[in-house]
Specification:
Order of helices and strands: HHHEEHHEEEE
Shape: globular
Largest sheet: 6 strands, mixed
CATH class: Alpha Beta
Number of domains: 1
Number of strands: 6
Structural class: alpha+beta
Strand content: 35-45%
Helix content: 25-40%
Amino acid sequence: MKHLVYFFVLISVTVFGQQDPLEQDSEAITAMLNAQKEAWNNYDIDSFMDGYWKSDDLTFYGSGGVIKGWEATLERYKKSYPSKEHFGTLNFVFNEIAPVSEETYYVMGEYYLTRPVGNTNGIFMLVVKKIDGAWKVIADTSAKVK
């Protein structure tokens, strides 16, 4: 009888203690994006860019049109946010994180920048993919809200 009780406890922990894979992915994606936010708020563009896929196929679509490539995206950020005052403090609201395929998700949300040179906010839709075990932004569409 004692062995039967241990068996049911083990099964309960194994079956009921496991987290849903979609929930695990969502938490990992949120953690990656929050690490980007922390890097931004520390005026660390290099660490912020760690969240992006380091590839010529990275796509950024914003008010200036389509930009292809990690290096071009980095240059766009440096040009658009030339100083700590332009960086300010970033906050996100994640409205939806949903799978597109097994290792690709889209993230829809809002961004809020509080800064000395004037606050700004907008919306975004990201496509994130698990690459070499890490979640990376492979496409970013962002737009300011007027």
